[in-house]
Design a protein that fits this description.
Layout lengths: L1 H13 L4 H16 L6 H8 L8 H14 L2 H13 L5 H17 L2 H6 L1 H12 L3 H12 L9 H10 L4 H30 L10 H27 L4 H19 L8 H31 L2 H12 L3 H16 L4 H18 L4 H14 L8 H10 L3 H24 L2 H9 L5
Helix pairs in contact: 1-2, 2-14, 3-14, 4-13, 4-14, 5-6, 5-12, 6-8, 6-9, 6-11, 8-9, 9-19, 9-20, 10-17, 11-18, 11-20, 11-21, 12-13, 14-17, 15-17, 16-17, 16-18, 17-18, 18-20
């Protein structure tokens, strides 16, 4: 039955069906072929897959990000980033990265970053004289910081799937790795810009302009402070923090920036509902697939096979990360998290690897796949927005992707990068 499950999955995926439909159809084919499993399990697991209190954070974070975008809060973040780093060599590339870091604290979504502020900065870079494909590559590479820096939709789903870690602890573990990814992109952008003479036509307006930009962006900057401060201090849970984020974004957009009107709210809610429905469809279909993997004892078979190769924890960790990177080439982020976590996480745990450390490595590895063909959802979003060819964009993003792989190697070599903040807050030893 394992061969039927994976065989039908591969055939349907290569045939070009959407990943959510592929997982549902492969699961149905396997259930019917087994003759032992009941088809009535399908609707039951479809419902149970999304019947989760922590999962409520996903639609709420999506709504909070849409409200902030409608309220023009992301525009103030962009102006602040431009005032702070826009005058440096490769300045608009730095603005791209810094805006992604700041926006990550609001949306937790790479696609939202790429389609929102990323699209604006990409157009700015092209008008300033940057090559179109380099502008797109910087936008795509910086967008994947979104799922790493909390709050993160991917981390919420991972914590639910893993079971040994909380959403709050994953949020804490993602802070330093996310910042490190940004720093490496800053350095890489500087080197490439100096070497190729990319223009940076932004005049430094002085520290007064930086201060004005900071004050104007303060309502947006306060949002992650409120969310993470409340979560880490125990005032509210990670799920409740998402509701607080929605309330904050709504009030600020209506009363402070006044860019959001009451008549706009139904449109924003509809946009968020459409995005949420797509995400939850993927989650529910993936939960069926993941449950079948458990029933067919795939995790146990994988553990036996891997421990037959080596028993060294570091080697096991490297093999798991490499396997995750390969899977990221073909499977979208959320289904990959739901399907692979029950298989790989127990192997890492029994090898003595800290669940938080592995969780961050797993998420970084899988989100890097968002910039790699043939799936690469961020690549396709950026290519669509920027009217670029995907294959040329994938080639342009390669140097930046290699730099991010260096960060992944550093995280493997130095677990303290992931565990420092969780230890500081009492989530890890």
């Amino acid at each position: 039955m394992i061969a039927v499950l994976f065989g039908s999955f591969a055939i349907l995926l290569l045939a070009g069906f959407p990943v959510s439909l592929v997982m549902g159809m492969a699961s149905l084919i396997t259930i019917l072929a087994s003759g032992e499993l009941r088809p009535l399990l399908l609707p039951q697991h479809l419902f149970n897959g999304i019947n989760s209190f922590p999962l409520m954070a996903v639609p709420l974070f999506i709504l909070a990000a849409d409200l902030m975008t409608a309220g023009k809060l992301t525009d103030s973040l962009l102006r602040f980033a431009k005032a702070l780093v826009g005058h440096l060599p490769g300045g608009l590339g730095h603005v791209n990265v810094l805006t992604s870091i700041l926006f990550a604290g609001k949306s937790g979504s790479a696609l939202a970053d790429a389609a929102g502020p990323g699209a604006i900065i990409m157009d700015m870079m092209r008008r300033a004289g940057y090559p179109p494909y380099y502008s797109g590559a910087m936008t795509a590479a910086s967008a994947i910081i979104g799922p790493i820096i909390p709050p993160s939709i991917v981390m919420v789903v991972y914590a639910i799937s893993e079971g040994r870690v909380s959403v709050s602890s994953m949020f804490a573990a993602g802070i330093l790795p996310g910042i490190l990814l940004g720093v490496v992109l800053f350095i890489t952008n500087h080197i490439i810009s100096v070497r190729h003479g990319h223009q940076y036509a932004v005049v430094f307006g002085g520290w007064r302009a930086v201060g004005v930009g900071f004050v104007q962006s303060l309502p947006g900057l306060l949002m992650p402070v409120i969310i993470l401060g409340g979560v880490f201090s125990g005032i509210f849970t990670a799920t409740e923090s998402a509701a607080v984020a929605v309330a904050y974004a709504l009030l600020v957009s209506l009363l402070v920036t006044r860019a959001l009107k009451l008549r706009d709210i139904p449109r924003v809610f509809l946009k968020s509902a459409l995005m949420t429905s797509g995400v939850l469809l993927i989650v529910s279909m993936a939960s069926i697939f993941a449950n079948l993997l458990t029933v067919l004892q795939v995790p146990q078979a994988a553990a036996v096979w891997l421990t037959g190769l080596t028993t060294d924890p570091t080697q096991i960790l490297i093999l798991l990360v490499v396997f995750t990177l390969i899977c990221g080439l073909f499977i979208d982020t959320l289904p990959a998290v739901i399907v692979l976590t029950p298989i790989l996480s127990p192997i890492a745990f029994h090898a003595g690897i800290d669940p938080l450390h592995f969780g961050i490595l797993f998420i970084v590895a899988i989100v890097l796949g968002m910039n790699t063909p043939p799936v690469g959802p961020v690549l396709f979003v950026v290519a669509t927005v920027g009217k670029l060819r995907v294959e040329l964009l994938a080639r342009a993003v390669l140097p930046l992707l290699l730099a991010q792989l260096v960060v992944l190697a550093l995280l493997i070599a130095f677990p303290a990068i992931s565990l420092f903040v969780p230890r500081l807050l009492g989530y890890a030893r």
